[in-house]
Amino acid sequence: MEMNEDSIIQMKKSFRKLDERRLKLLDEPEIQELRDRVTRIREESVRNMDKLLRTARKTFTENGVEFHLAADADEACSLISGIVAGEDAVAKSKSNALSEI
């Protein structure tokens, strides 16, 4: 499907307008407050990571879910390979984990 010049110009104007609205929205006090709140939550989570991981491991295990924690990408790949070895089919849920490895 090929677009004509007028359609391309109109699309560029629309994207430019959306970008202007997005930038204006990011300057709103409520958005800045949310950004600050998310930063504080992230920092607190990093400070409490050991406790949060213990809680997650306990909760998952209590619910019959296997919990694996890898120190790095190589270890993660090794864990995954070991888990799926010999299986005929593997299902993966939507996750950023694989792209992060």
- DSSP E strands, number: 0
| Radius of gyration from CA coordinates | 22 Å
Q: What profile does the largest beta sheet have?
A: none
What gross morphology would you assign? flat
Q: Spell out the helices and strands N to C.
A: HHHHH
Helix content: over 70%
Q: Can you give the mean pLDDT?
A: 92
Strand content: under 5%
- Structural domains: how many: 2
The poorly predicted ranges are none
Treating each run of at least 4 consecutive H or I residues as one helix, how many helices?
Answer: 5
The helix/strand class is: mainly alpha
Distance between the termini: 36 Å
InterPro entries: LutB/LldF (IPR004452)
Report on the architecture of this protein.
Helix content is 70%, strand content 0%. The chain is flat, with a radius of gyration of 22 Å. The model has no long low-confidence stretch (mean pLDDT 92). By secondary structure, it is mainly alpha-helical. The protein has 2 domains: 7-67, no CATH class; 68-101, no CATH class. The protein is built from 5 helices and no strands.
